[in-house]
Amino acid sequence: MDQTTIRRLSDEATQVLLNKPGTASSNAGGWMMISTILIEAWDLYAIAFVLIFVREEYHPTAAQLGLATAAVQGGALIGALLGGIIADRLGRKKVFILTMVLFIVLALAQGFSQNIWDLIIMRLLIGIPLGSDISNGYAYIMESMSKGKREQMGSRWQFMFGLGEVFAIIIITIMYMAGMPHDILWRVALALGAVPAVILLIGRLKLPETPLSLLQRGQFVRAKEVSRQLFDDPLDMLPNQDVKLEKPKLNDFLKVIWADPIKRRATIFGWISNACQGAEFTAWGFYLPVILVLSGVGVSSSGSIVGSNIVTALIFCLATLSGFVAPLMLPRIGHRGLAMWGYGLAFLGLMIGGFALQYDWKILIVIGACILMWGHYWDASNGMTICSMVAPSRFKATASGFGYVFVKAASFFGAFVFPMVSEALGKSGATFAVSILSLIGFLAAKFILPEMYGYVETEEVPDGAPGR
């Protein structure tokens, strides 16, 4: 068969699968992929609670402390871009198994760091499999679940992120209350991320490759088998033989996205939203434990930070509830409404927090943090989903990786710069500066994002156009 016929059959099968109801197997795969966020949340947030102990042992400069927190974001930026491209070429399963193995090894290794630069380098390296796994995982969700269900699953990442943060807070607080030496505590806290990663790796070994990924690589025989398993459809329109398909090109991805106004506007919003929410969180929410301790919220007269940790845990329990509610709101207010409400509340929370820090109103610091976190867990829920949802299957992981690059670039910037901005402008001034990001996200949702709920990707291009 010529390439035009092969592509036509592949596209026909793709449209069938994108509109099929899912099965128990497809739902299980979606949960297995989104659970990666638990591991990332543990690694990202555990260090926020042990920064004080790292500072006690290594006495880093403000720049070194910023690098120690931001390095994992920089590594994830690299991993998101490379991992997405590799997954589109080699398939989903090979990549998500490799990334979990690398994470387990590197998570344990960072617990044995000998100096601040060891820690920075380890955290840079550990970010690479994390970023790669997220971009690959979103592609898996969008290709293995049914319409509507895949959107809701993709938007659960903030719920899973909240769970990971709460687990980190509780376990680290228990170790602190048990009297574990501080130089041991922070090492154990960072290395513990390997435990859920091992469990997730074992669970993933039985997951199949996605039929859409197989289709786009010409493996029709396996695609028919996996489609029967995930969607109860043998794809009878496909021949019972494998074929050779041309490899997708990166520049074709951008051309295809830019050629369609809906894809273009949705993708631009996704990139803006991912950048705004990434910096919004790491510049304020990530440093929340430090902000509360330095502001004296929950700190006892003896200097114990247990009370501050409990306040932080309660705030993140509320945030986790927000992350759980966000996907349920999609059928009611759509992606556009979810983003506008989220960014609007985040802006309000940051403004309240800024004034509260300026005038040392401790209760308002907590109220502002609660409003911010509820809003953030809505505004951050759908950027990745939208980027991945609108892309053709042969570019699905690439699109997810591109989208996640904006999250991690902004997160790296926020985590690295916030300590220095706080030093220059004070905590309140830095908070007001962060609120600008929330305002930009709100405006992007209102004026750029078309409503995307229920969207099914189609690609109508003539022969000879990119990808044909």
Task: Write a structural description.
The chain is mostly helical and 468 residues long. It has a single domain, classed as Up-down Bundle (Growth Hormone, Chain: A), CATH 1.20.1250.20. Helix content is 78%, strand content 0%. The longest helix is centred in the C-terminal third of the chain and has 54 residues, at 306-359. It starts with a helix and ends in a 21-residue tail after the last helix.
Category from helices, strands and their pairing: mainly alpha
Q: What is the level-2 CATH architecture name?
A: Up-down Bundle
| Secondary-structure element order, N to C | HHHHHHHHHHHHHHHHHHH
Estimate the global geometry from the Cα principal axes. Answer: globular
What ranges have pLDDT less than 50 throughout 5 or more consecutive residues? 461-468
Termini distance? 14 Å
Q: Enter the CATH topology name.
A: Growth Hormone, Chain: A
How is the main sheet built? Answer: none
CATH homology superfamily:
MFS general substrate transporter like domains
Radius of gyration: 22 Å
The first-level CATH class is given as Mainly Alpha
Mean pLDDT: 85
Number of domains: 1
**Share in β-strands:** under 5%
If helices are DSSP runs of H or I spanning 4 or more residues, what is the number of helices?
A: 19
Helix content: over 70%
Annotation, overall tally of beta strands: 0
Sequence-ordered SSE layout with sheet pairings:
Layout: H1 3-18, H2 24-34, H3 36-58, H4 62-90, H5 92-110, H6 116-144, H7 149-154, H8 157-177, H9 182-191, H10 194-204, H11 211-216, H12 220-231, H13 250-259, H14 261-285, H15 288-294, H16 306-359, H17 362-379, H18 383-389, H19 396-447
Helix pairs in contact: 2-6, 3-6, 3-8, 3-9, 4-5, 4-6, 4-19, 5-6, 5-10, 6-19, 8-9, 8-16, 13-14, 14-17, 14-18, 14-19, 16-17, 16-19, 18-19
